[in-house]
Protein backbone atom coordinates (compact mmCIF):
# COMPACT_ATOMS: atom_id res chain seq x y z
CA UNK A 1 0.00 0.00 0.00
CA UNK A 2 2.90 2.30 0.69
CA UNK A 3 4.22 2.01 -2.86
CA UNK A 4 0.68 2.55 -4.24
CA UNK A 5 0.34 5.75 -2.26
CA UNK A 6 3.66 7.01 -3.68
CA UNK A 7 2.59 6.05 -7.20
CA UNK A 8 -0.70 7.95 -6.87
CA UNK A 9 1.11 11.01 -5.51
CA UNK A 10 3.49 11.00 -8.49
CA UNK A 11 0.64 10.63 -10.99
CA UNK A 12 -1.35 13.43 -9.38
CA UNK A 13 1.70 15.68 -9.28
CA UNK A 14 2.28 15.07 -12.98
CA UNK A 15 -1.33 15.86 -13.80
CA UNK A 16 -1.14 19.08 -11.81
CA UNK A 17 2.04 20.15 -13.63
CA UNK A 18 0.57 19.36 -17.04
CA UNK A 19 -2.72 21.11 -16.30
CA UNK A 20 -0.86 24.12 -14.90
CA UNK A 21 1.21 24.33 -18.07
CA UNK A 22 -1.84 24.03 -20.30
CA UNK A 23 -3.79 26.56 -18.25
CA UNK A 24 -0.88 29.00 -18.34
CA UNK A 25 -0.60 28.47 -22.08
CA UNK A 26 -4.32 29.20 -22.48
CA UNK A 27 -4.03 32.36 -20.44
CA UNK A 28 -1.10 33.56 -22.57
CA UNK A 29 -2.91 32.95 -25.84
CA UNK A 30 -5.87 34.98 -24.57
CA UNK A 31 -3.67 38.04 -24.11
CA UNK A 32 -4.30 39.80 -27.42
CA UNK A 33 -3.53 43.28 -26.12
CA UNK A 34 -0.24 45.01 -27.03
CA UNK A 35 2.46 45.58 -24.45
CA UNK A 36 1.55 49.25 -24.08
CA UNK A 37 -2.11 48.53 -23.27
CA UNK A 38 -1.72 48.62 -19.49
CA UNK A 39 0.50 51.72 -19.71
CA UNK A 40 -2.27 53.52 -21.57
CA UNK A 41 -4.94 52.23 -19.22
CA UNK A 42 -3.24 53.17 -15.96
CA UNK A 43 -2.48 56.76 -17.03
CA UNK A 44 -5.23 59.12 -15.79
CA UNK A 45 -6.61 61.43 -18.48
CA UNK A 46 -9.46 63.63 -17.20
CA UNK A 47 -10.94 66.30 -19.47
CA UNK A 48 -8.63 69.27 -19.73
CA UNK A 49 -5.63 67.32 -18.37
CA UNK A 50 -4.69 65.13 -21.35
CA UNK A 51 -1.06 66.24 -21.69
CA UNK A 52 0.54 63.21 -19.99
CA UNK A 53 -1.44 60.83 -22.19
CA UNK A 54 -0.54 62.77 -25.34
CA UNK A 55 3.17 62.53 -24.47
CA UNK A 56 2.81 58.79 -23.83
CA UNK A 57 1.19 58.21 -27.23
CA UNK A 58 3.93 60.24 -28.93
CA UNK A 59 6.56 58.19 -27.11
CA UNK A 60 4.98 54.90 -28.22
CA UNK A 61 4.77 56.00 -31.87
CA UNK A 62 8.30 57.40 -31.91
CA UNK A 63 9.63 60.06 -34.24
CA UNK A 64 8.52 58.50 -37.51
CA UNK A 65 5.62 60.43 -38.97
CA UNK A 66 4.02 63.83 -38.47
CA UNK A 67 2.37 65.04 -35.26
CA UNK A 68 0.33 68.17 -34.77
CA UNK A 69 -2.02 69.53 -32.11
CA UNK A 70 -5.07 71.76 -32.09
CA UNK A 71 -5.78 74.52 -29.59
CA UNK A 72 -7.68 72.15 -27.27
CA UNK A 73 -4.75 69.74 -26.99
CA UNK A 74 -5.98 66.96 -29.30
CA UNK A 75 -3.24 64.93 -30.97
CA UNK A 76 -3.15 64.17 -34.71
CA UNK A 77 -0.69 61.81 -36.37
CA UNK A 78 0.06 60.71 -39.93
CA UNK A 79 2.83 58.45 -41.19
CA UNK A 80 3.00 60.36 -44.51
CA UNK A 81 3.04 63.96 -45.66
CA UNK A 82 0.28 63.61 -48.24
CA UNK A 83 -3.34 64.56 -47.63
CA UNK A 84 -5.31 61.84 -45.88
CA UNK A 85 -8.35 60.12 -47.38
CA UNK A 86 -9.44 58.60 -44.09
CA UNK A 87 -9.36 59.74 -40.46
CA UNK A 88 -9.56 57.25 -37.59
CA UNK A 89 -10.32 59.00 -34.32
CA UNK A 90 -11.07 58.27 -30.69
CA UNK A 91 -11.95 60.47 -27.70
CA UNK A 92 -8.99 60.74 -25.35
CA UNK A 93 -10.39 62.12 -22.10
CA UNK A 94 -12.25 60.64 -19.15
CA UNK A 95 -15.07 62.09 -17.07
CA UNK A 96 -13.62 63.21 -13.76
CA UNK A 97 -13.88 65.64 -10.88
CA UNK A 98 -11.92 68.49 -9.32
CA UNK A 99 -11.14 69.36 -5.72
CA UNK A 100 -13.60 72.11 -4.78
CA UNK A 101 -12.59 72.70 -1.17
CA UNK A 102 -11.48 71.24 2.13
CA UNK A 103 -12.75 70.80 5.67
CA UNK A 104 -10.93 71.70 8.87
CA UNK A 105 -10.83 68.00 9.78
CA UNK A 106 -8.82 67.20 6.63
CA UNK A 107 -11.55 65.89 4.34
CA UNK A 108 -11.74 67.15 0.75
CA UNK A 109 -14.82 68.15 -1.25
CA UNK A 110 -15.29 67.55 -5.00
CA UNK A 111 -17.28 68.87 -7.92
CA UNK A 112 -17.71 67.98 -11.58
CA UNK A 113 -16.40 70.08 -14.48
CA UNK A 114 -18.12 68.03 -17.20
CA UNK A 115 -21.71 66.77 -17.38
CA UNK A 116 -22.36 63.39 -15.77
CA UNK A 117 -22.67 60.55 -18.34
CA UNK A 118 -25.92 59.49 -16.65
CA UNK A 119 -28.00 60.43 -13.56
CA UNK A 120 -26.39 57.80 -11.28
CA UNK A 121 -22.78 58.64 -12.17
CA UNK A 122 -22.01 60.48 -8.93
CA UNK A 123 -23.29 57.63 -6.76
CA UNK A 124 -20.81 55.05 -8.07
CA UNK A 125 -17.42 56.29 -6.72
CA UNK A 126 -18.34 55.86 -3.03
CA UNK A 127 -15.88 53.46 -1.41
CA UNK A 128 -13.51 53.46 -4.37
CA UNK A 129 -9.86 54.56 -4.30
CA UNK A 130 -9.16 57.79 -6.18
CA UNK A 131 -6.14 59.64 -7.52
CA UNK A 132 -5.66 63.39 -7.16
CA UNK A 133 -3.36 64.79 -9.86
CA UNK A 134 -1.34 67.54 -8.21
CA UNK A 135 1.57 69.61 -9.50
CA UNK A 136 3.81 67.54 -7.21
CA UNK A 137 2.51 64.14 -8.37
CA UNK A 138 -0.37 61.79 -7.67
CA UNK A 139 -1.95 61.73 -4.19
CA UNK A 140 -4.05 58.68 -3.43
CA UNK A 141 -7.25 58.80 -1.42
CA UNK A 142 -10.63 57.16 -1.03
CA UNK A 143 -14.07 58.53 -1.92
CA UNK A 144 -16.39 58.18 1.03
CA UNK A 145 -19.61 59.41 2.64
CA UNK A 146 -20.08 59.97 6.38
CA UNK A 147 -21.17 56.95 8.40
CA UNK A 148 -24.85 57.26 9.36
CA UNK A 149 -24.54 55.81 12.84
CA UNK A 150 -22.26 58.57 14.18
CA UNK A 151 -24.72 61.41 13.35
CA UNK A 152 -27.73 62.71 15.25
CA UNK A 153 -31.19 62.03 13.80
CA UNK A 154 -31.48 65.35 11.88
CA UNK A 155 -28.19 64.70 10.03
CA UNK A 156 -29.13 61.08 9.32
CA UNK A 157 -32.40 62.14 7.71
CA UNK A 158 -30.47 64.64 5.59
CA UNK A 159 -28.09 61.94 4.34
CA UNK A 160 -30.99 59.63 3.56
CA UNK A 161 -32.18 62.03 0.88
CA UNK A 162 -31.09 61.52 -2.78
CA UNK A 163 -27.30 61.58 -3.10
CA UNK A 164 -25.49 64.68 -4.30
CA UNK A 165 -21.86 65.73 -4.39
CA UNK A 166 -22.41 67.96 -1.34
CA UNK A 167 -22.49 64.72 0.70
CA UNK A 168 -19.28 63.26 -0.74
CA UNK A 169 -15.83 63.46 0.82
CA UNK A 170 -12.35 62.36 -0.16
CA UNK A 171 -10.10 61.10 2.61
CA UNK A 172 -6.35 61.33 1.95
CA UNK A 173 -5.36 60.72 5.57
CA UNK A 174 -5.00 64.42 6.38
CA UNK A 175 -6.18 65.75 9.75
CA UNK A 176 -6.33 69.47 8.90
CA UNK A 177 -6.24 72.01 6.08
CA UNK A 178 -2.54 72.45 6.73
CA UNK A 179 -1.89 68.75 6.14
CA UNK A 180 -3.91 68.92 2.91
CA UNK A 181 -1.69 71.73 1.64
CA UNK A 182 1.44 69.87 2.81
CA UNK A 183 0.52 67.04 0.45
CA UNK A 184 0.59 69.49 -2.46
CA UNK A 185 -3.17 69.42 -3.00
CA UNK A 186 -4.72 72.60 -4.38
CA UNK A 187 -8.28 73.53 -5.20
CA UNK A 188 -9.25 72.53 -8.79
CA UNK A 189 -6.75 69.67 -8.91
CA UNK A 190 -8.36 66.89 -11.01
CA UNK A 191 -9.66 63.71 -9.39
CA UNK A 192 -10.26 60.33 -11.08
CA UNK A 193 -11.09 56.84 -9.89
CA UNK A 194 -7.92 54.81 -9.51
CA UNK A 195 -7.24 52.82 -12.67
CA UNK A 196 -7.31 49.25 -11.41
CA UNK A 197 -7.38 46.56 -14.08
CA UNK A 198 -9.11 43.34 -12.99
CA UNK A 199 -8.71 40.12 -14.98
CA UNK A 200 -11.88 38.03 -15.07
CA UNK A 201 -12.57 34.49 -16.27
CA UNK A 202 -12.19 33.86 -19.99
CA UNK A 203 -9.65 36.65 -20.38
CA UNK A 204 -12.23 39.40 -19.83
CA UNK A 205 -10.99 42.64 -18.30
CA UNK A 206 -12.77 45.04 -15.95
CA UNK A 207 -12.05 48.48 -14.56
CA UNK A 208 -13.17 52.11 -14.53
CA UNK A 209 -12.79 54.02 -17.84
CA UNK A 210 -11.79 50.75 -19.53
CA UNK A 211 -14.00 51.04 -22.62
CA UNK A 212 -12.72 54.44 -23.63
CA UNK A 213 -9.10 53.54 -22.90
CA UNK A 214 -9.45 50.37 -24.99
CA UNK A 215 -10.63 52.48 -27.93
CA UNK A 216 -7.65 54.81 -27.51
CA UNK A 217 -5.35 51.75 -27.48
CA UNK A 218 -7.01 50.26 -30.57
CA UNK A 219 -6.38 53.38 -32.68
CA UNK A 220 -2.84 53.55 -31.28
CA UNK A 221 -2.19 49.89 -32.18
CA UNK A 222 -3.27 50.56 -35.77
CA UNK A 223 -1.11 53.69 -36.01
CA UNK A 224 1.88 51.84 -34.55
CA UNK A 225 1.42 49.00 -37.04
CA UNK A 226 1.23 51.60 -39.83
CA UNK A 227 4.58 53.06 -38.74
CA UNK A 228 6.41 49.76 -38.22
CA UNK A 229 5.02 47.74 -41.14
CA UNK A 230 7.12 47.31 -44.27
CA UNK A 231 3.90 47.25 -46.29
CA UNK A 232 2.64 50.77 -46.86
CA UNK A 233 -1.11 51.32 -46.39
CA UNK A 234 -3.13 51.67 -49.57
CA UNK A 235 -5.04 54.56 -48.00
CA UNK A 236 -3.44 57.65 -46.50
CA UNK A 237 -4.70 57.83 -42.93
CA UNK A 238 -4.63 60.44 -40.20
CA UNK A 239 -5.07 59.19 -36.64
CA UNK A 240 -6.53 61.47 -33.97
CA UNK A 241 -7.03 61.30 -30.22
CA UNK A 242 -9.37 64.09 -29.17
CA UNK A 243 -9.03 66.11 -25.98
CA UNK A 244 -11.88 67.76 -24.09
CA UNK A 245 -14.49 65.59 -25.78
CA UNK A 246 -16.53 65.52 -22.54
CA UNK A 247 -16.95 69.31 -22.51
CA UNK A 248 -19.96 70.72 -24.37
CA UNK A 249 -20.03 73.88 -26.43
CA UNK A 250 -22.51 76.57 -25.44
CA UNK A 251 -22.54 78.18 -28.90
CA UNK A 252 -24.73 75.46 -30.44
CA UNK A 253 -28.42 74.80 -29.92
CA UNK A 254 -27.82 71.16 -29.02
CA UNK A 255 -25.26 69.56 -26.69
CA UNK A 256 -22.16 69.20 -28.83
CA UNK A 257 -18.72 67.89 -27.90
CA UNK A 258 -16.17 70.70 -27.86
CA UNK A 259 -13.30 68.40 -28.89
CA UNK A 260 -15.33 67.03 -31.80
CA UNK A 261 -16.23 70.53 -33.04
CA UNK A 262 -12.58 71.51 -33.21
CA UNK A 263 -11.53 68.21 -34.82
CA UNK A 264 -14.21 68.55 -37.52
CA UNK A 265 -12.68 71.94 -38.38
CA UNK A 266 -9.11 70.58 -38.45
CA UNK A 267 -9.70 67.36 -40.38
CA UNK A 268 -10.20 67.56 -44.14
CA UNK A 269 -10.53 63.82 -44.75
CA UNK A 270 -13.58 62.85 -46.82
CA UNK A 271 -14.14 59.80 -44.60
CA UNK A 272 -14.06 59.59 -40.80
CA UNK A 273 -14.24 56.45 -38.64
CA UNK A 274 -15.00 57.09 -34.96
CA UNK A 275 -13.84 54.37 -32.55
CA UNK A 276 -16.25 54.52 -29.63
CA UNK A 277 -17.30 52.42 -26.58
CA UNK A 278 -20.92 51.28 -26.81
CA UNK A 279 -22.99 49.78 -23.96
CA UNK A 280 -24.19 46.22 -23.85
CA UNK A 281 -27.64 45.91 -22.31
CA UNK A 282 -28.82 49.47 -23.01
CA UNK A 283 -32.58 49.36 -23.82
CA UNK A 284 -31.99 51.99 -26.51
CA UNK A 285 -29.30 49.82 -28.15
CA UNK A 286 -30.68 46.30 -27.60
CA UNK A 287 -28.72 44.61 -30.38
CA UNK A 288 -25.26 45.06 -28.81
CA UNK A 289 -23.69 41.98 -27.22
CA UNK A 290 -20.27 41.12 -25.86
CA UNK A 291 -18.22 38.53 -27.74
CA UNK A 292 -19.95 39.25 -31.07
CA UNK A 293 -17.39 41.63 -32.57
CA UNK A 294 -17.35 45.41 -33.16
CA UNK A 295 -20.55 47.39 -33.70
CA UNK A 296 -20.99 49.22 -37.03
CA UNK A 297 -23.07 52.26 -37.84
CA UNK A 298 -22.56 54.63 -40.77
CA UNK A 299 -24.20 57.71 -42.23
CA UNK A 300 -23.08 56.50 -45.67
CA UNK A 301 -24.47 53.33 -47.25
CA UNK A 302 -21.39 53.17 -49.46
CA UNK A 303 -18.93 53.42 -46.57
CA UNK A 304 -20.91 50.91 -44.52
CA UNK A 305 -20.87 48.39 -47.40
CA UNK A 306 -17.13 48.79 -47.88
CA UNK A 307 -16.40 48.19 -44.19
CA UNK A 308 -18.66 45.12 -44.21
CA UNK A 309 -16.88 43.77 -47.30
CA UNK A 310 -13.49 44.07 -45.59
CA UNK A 311 -14.89 42.39 -42.46
CA UNK A 312 -16.21 39.49 -44.54
CA UNK A 313 -12.88 39.10 -46.38
CA UNK A 314 -11.09 38.79 -43.01
CA UNK A 315 -13.78 36.56 -41.48
CA UNK A 316 -14.50 39.17 -38.79
CA UNK A 317 -17.89 39.07 -37.10
CA UNK A 318 -19.61 42.41 -36.57
CA UNK A 319 -22.87 43.81 -35.23
CA UNK A 320 -24.99 46.34 -37.10
CA UNK A 321 -26.51 49.34 -35.36
CA UNK A 322 -29.55 50.73 -37.15
CA UNK A 323 -29.62 54.11 -35.42
CA UNK A 324 -27.04 56.12 -33.51
CA UNK A 325 -26.65 59.72 -32.33
CA UNK A 326 -24.36 61.46 -29.89
CA UNK A 327 -22.98 64.87 -29.00
CA UNK A 328 -19.63 63.68 -30.34
CA UNK A 329 -20.94 62.56 -33.73
CA UNK A 330 -22.92 65.63 -34.80
CA UNK A 331 -20.01 67.96 -35.84
CA UNK A 332 -18.64 65.36 -38.27
CA UNK A 333 -22.05 64.80 -39.80
CA UNK A 334 -22.41 68.55 -40.31
CA UNK A 335 -18.98 68.81 -41.99
CA UNK A 336 -20.24 66.84 -45.00
CA UNK A 337 -17.84 63.89 -44.74
CA UNK A 338 -18.84 60.24 -44.74
CA UNK A 339 -18.93 59.06 -41.11
CA UNK A 340 -18.86 55.58 -39.61
CA UNK A 341 -18.81 54.45 -35.99
CA UNK A 342 -16.97 51.27 -35.07
CA UNK A 343 -18.00 50.59 -31.51
CA UNK A 344 -16.39 48.39 -28.87
CA UNK A 345 -19.07 46.55 -26.85
CA UNK A 346 -18.73 47.33 -23.13
CA UNK A 347 -20.69 45.82 -20.28
CA UNK A 348 -21.54 48.23 -17.43
CA UNK A 349 -20.31 51.24 -19.43
CA UNK A 350 -19.80 54.42 -17.38
CA UNK A 351 -19.45 52.56 -14.08
CA UNK A 352 -16.33 51.65 -12.07
CA UNK A 353 -16.67 48.07 -13.40
CA UNK A 354 -16.62 48.36 -17.19
CA UNK A 355 -16.03 44.95 -18.80
CA UNK A 356 -14.58 44.22 -22.25
CA UNK A 357 -13.81 40.97 -24.09
CA UNK A 358 -10.38 40.53 -25.75
CA UNK A 359 -11.99 38.93 -28.80
CA UNK A 360 -14.05 42.07 -29.48
CA UNK A 361 -11.04 44.36 -29.06
CA UNK A 362 -8.89 42.21 -31.34
CA UNK A 363 -11.61 42.04 -34.02
CA UNK A 364 -12.04 45.82 -33.90
CA UNK A 365 -8.30 46.43 -34.22
CA UNK A 366 -7.79 43.90 -37.02
CA UNK A 367 -10.74 45.38 -38.92
CA UNK A 368 -9.22 48.87 -38.70
CA UNK A 369 -5.84 47.55 -39.82
CA UNK A 370 -7.45 45.71 -42.72
CA UNK A 371 -9.37 48.82 -43.81
CA UNK A 372 -6.25 50.90 -44.36
CA UNK A 373 -4.58 48.09 -46.32
CA UNK A 374 -7.65 47.21 -48.40
CA UNK A 375 -6.73 49.46 -51.30
CA UNK A 376 -10.27 50.59 -51.88
CA UNK A 377 -12.49 53.27 -50.45
CA UNK A 378 -11.63 53.54 -47.66
Notable traits:
378 residues; alpha+beta; Elongation Factor Tu (Ef-tu), domain 3; 2 domains; six-stranded antiparallel beta sheet; 10 helices; 31% helix
Structure report:
By secondary structure, this protein is α+β, with helices and mostly antiparallel strands. The chain contains 10 helices and 17 strands. Helix 8 (301-313) links the parallel strand 14 (295-298) and strand 15. Helix 6 runs parallel beside helix 10 (358-372). The termini are far apart. The model is unreliable at 1-30 (pLDDT under 50).
In short:
The chain is an alpha+beta fold.
Helix content: 25-40%
The count of β-strands is 17
What general outline do the C-alpha atoms trace?
globular
How many separate helices? 10
Radius of gyration: 24 Å
| CATH-level-2 architecture of the largest domain | 3-Layer(aba) Sandwich
- Distance from first to last alpha carbon: 73 Å
Q: Name the CATH homologous superfamily of the largest domain.
A: Zn peptidases
- Characterize the largest beta sheet: strand count, sense, and whether it forms a barrel: 8 strands, mixed
Q: Order the strands across the largest sheet as they lie in space.
A: 1-2-12-3-13-16-14-15
| Structural class by sheet pairing and helices | alpha+beta
What's the structural blueprint in terms of helices and strands?
Layout lengths: L1 H28 L7 H6 L8 H11 L4 E4 L5 E4 L7 E6 L5 E6 L5 E5 L16 E6 L2 E8 L8 H7 L9 E3 L5 H6 L7 E4 L4 E2 L5 E3 L2 H19 L8 E6 L15 H9 L4 E10 L14 E4 L2 H13 L5 E2 L9 H5 L3 E10 L6 E3 L1 H15 L6
Helix pairs in contact: 6-10
Amino acid sequence: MHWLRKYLILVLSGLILVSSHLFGQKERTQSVFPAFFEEIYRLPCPSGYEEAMVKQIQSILGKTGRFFRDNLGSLYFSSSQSSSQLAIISPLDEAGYVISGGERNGYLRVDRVTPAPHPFWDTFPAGHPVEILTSQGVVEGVWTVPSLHIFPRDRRSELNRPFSLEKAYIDVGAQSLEEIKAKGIQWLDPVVLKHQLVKLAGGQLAGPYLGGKACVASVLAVAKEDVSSSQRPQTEVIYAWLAQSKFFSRSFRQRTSLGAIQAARVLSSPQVIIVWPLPEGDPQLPSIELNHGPVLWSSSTQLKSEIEEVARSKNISWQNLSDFSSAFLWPFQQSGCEVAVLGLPVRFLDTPSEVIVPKDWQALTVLLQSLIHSGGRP
